Amino acid sequence: MATTEIYRYLTIEKKTYALDPEGYLVDMGDWSPEVAEALAHEEGIVLTAEHWEILQVLRDFYVRYEMAPAMRPLVKAVGQALGPAKGRSIHLMRLFPGSPAKVAARLAGLPKPTHCL
User: Fold this and answer.
1) Is DNA repair one of the keywords UniProt gives this record (predicted)?
2) What is the pTM (predicted TM-score) of this model?
3) Residue range 84-100: average pLDDT?
4) Phi then psi dihedrals of residue 38, to 5 deg
């Protein structure tokens, strides 16, 4: 079993969470809404109901496929779960600037999506 390099720690109310060099949780079991809020704060994002529904779609996708989706599968999954208006790249870019698949996966406590630079 490969070991994951730990880059730094995130501390919330005296509990410490290990993050890998790219800021993703080392242990997915450590994820909680509080962890998502703290990671979002680091990204300059204030989580709204729209963010939370995307994070839930991501977490459901991971349970089903055992991987975090790259952008194209993310758009498709969001469209199927939340409708075509929300399953658009522009909507996801507005909520998760930069690289929506990577940022949203990080906030959802998932590993970095495959095929994302």
Assistant:
1) no
2) 0.90
3) 96
4) -65, -40
